[in-house]
Amino acid sequence: MPQLSRQTGTSLSEINIVPFVDVMLVLLVIFMITAPILQSGIEVDVPKTKTVKEISESRIVVSIDRAQRIYIGDAAVNIHELGDKVHAQMHNPQGDAVYLRCDKTVPFGAFALVVDTMRQSGIQNISVVTEPLDDAPH
How much is the average pLDDT of 89-111? Predict the structure, then answer.
């Protein structure tokens, strides 16, 4: 019986990185698309109104979530330290605006307390953040 000569397969000496690069590019595109959408890490369902002004500049944002916790940006803050911490982040306390995001389920008393605390510390320019009202009938 004739013997067939077999060629020994050479071992793969290089790692194929094309699938790795494909996955990394897809992840990069996903993060590039979702990063600007994320406004803040605090989950707040703000009320809807007809008059809405876009926040175009980087501003100080105070948030009140459903559990009535208060945040400056993404950092939790005590109500007694709110005025001092907001003042520390402001460049021009007389002219700079502070944006207040408040969940629509928060009682008005908690909202009024935060506004009053900021006003007592000398912050007069407070803007309330809302979402545009849908014009379509439900």
Answer: 84
In CATH, what is the architecture of 48-132? 2-Layer Sandwich (3.30)
Q: What contacts 36, CB < 8 A, 6 or more positions away?
A: none
Task: Report whether 127 contacts 56 (CB < 8 A).
Answer: no
β-sheet bridge partners, residue 102: 64
Tokens 């996955």 belong to: 23
- Give the integer Cα–Cα distance in Å for 130 and 11: 63
**pTM over 0.70, yes/no:** no
pLDDT band for position 58 (50/70/90)? Answer: low
**Residue 35 and residue 24: Cα distance in Å, rounded?**
16
Report how far residue 71's alpha carbon sits from residue 82's, in angstroms, rounded to the nearest whole number: 9
